[in-house]
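My main concern about presentation is that the manuscript never shows what a single data entry looks like. Each protein is reduced to its one-letter sequence and a matching series of backbone shape codes. For the editor and my fellow referees, an illustration may be useful. For illustration, here is how one protein appears when written out as sequence plus structure tokens:
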Amino acid sequence: MSQQPEARLRRLYMANKLSSIGSIIILLNTLAVNVRAAASTQGAYDFINLSAVIGLVMSGLAIYFSIRLYKLYPPATLSDVSAIRRTGMVLLILSIIGLFIIGLIFIHASFNFIFLILMILLWGGSFIGFTLLLIGSILAVMWKP
């Protein structure tokens, strides 16, 4: 049984919105981590600075491709299926890399309990954002016109 056209477009709409919301959450959380790391002068935050810069680059790319997915949304639904899937694949790769980086941060933080708690508080928003980005990108990749 095939889906109705409205349901298909709703799935693409949800992919777009989840990707956009996840990208914005990642950006806001990364900015918060950068502000916190800039306020600290401890040596342990050098690793946070590096990961925050990587997070800014990743969130910038994710926002760009979320906007690109938005521009592909309603007008070109049948002719640009491959463009929608390619954009979804790029977002999927970004979300997997981001979740891997967050995992490395938690592994690095697990050597010190207080640092681990700080990492969970600081990077929890990025985990949520990358998860939303992952779900939105999977919806975009699996979308059928």
Q: What stands out?
A: The two ends are 14 Å apart (CA to CA). The chain has four helices and no strands. The chain has one domain: 5-141. Helices lie at 5-39, 45-71, 81-109, 113-141.
